[in-house]
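Lecture notes, unit on binding sites. The following record was shown on slide 14. It pairs a sequence with cytidine-5'-monophosphate.
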Amino acid sequence: SLPWDLDGKRVVISAGGTRESLDPVRYLGNRSSGRQGYALARIAAHRGADVTLVAAHTADLVTPAGVRLIKVGTAEELRTVVLAESDGADAVVMAAAVADFRPVNQAEHKIKKTDRDPEPVVLARNPDILAELVESRSAGKLAASLIVGFAAETGDATSSVLDHGRAKLARKGCDMLVVNAVGDGMAFEVEDNSGWLLGDDGTEERIDLGAKSLLASTLWDAVGRRLSDQ
Ligand code: C5P
């Protein structure tokens, strides 16, 4: 049976991929299925946590028992809900694939096909919610014990997935970062995941290829340890 080590802890998890509207019927999206975020929510609830799951678009997934689900669409909506829900949380885990850009113009009516060449899509930068959580906490505007990010990285000739992860942990300023190895059919739209769990305290734990629920257990083990040390 699972440990009951998150009893009374309040956790906020974001999951899925945001969709940025071009017009009432079209959007820019991504391939996130939400499976990792849902697995995190399910395991945390089993271990006694009070779980709020903020879900953007996902595959057809079962809402885990006892989890409070809040559905969102765009990155801006995700931002509003996550920032509001995170105040006072013991852990905030950003597993959502948040669109980095959104179309500058969202047409009120469906864009029509004409004989002319289509207009180019102009993009604007979206807020980095993870970075904003960290900044708000530093500024004393948000109380959250642990802020955890996810990163999907590919290794290349000069830098490994682990190197990219270490750099991103430092850049984002979060307390922990799960780095997933992606590419070659890994991580997205599949059941399994692998990578590293990095802590700002220097801990580096390898996560072998396995079910997303296994990665979730490894993460909650580490979160539980960090919370009991505080
Ligand atoms: O920089 P990158 O997009 O790889 O970082 C991924 C992490 O940052 C994830 O935890 C994701 O949820 C978060 N993120 C965010 N807001 C964005 C982009 C990413 O919170 N606009």
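Take-home: The pocket of cytidine-5'-monophosphate is lined by residues 75, 94, 96, 98, 100, 126, 128-130, 149-151 (CB under 6 Å).
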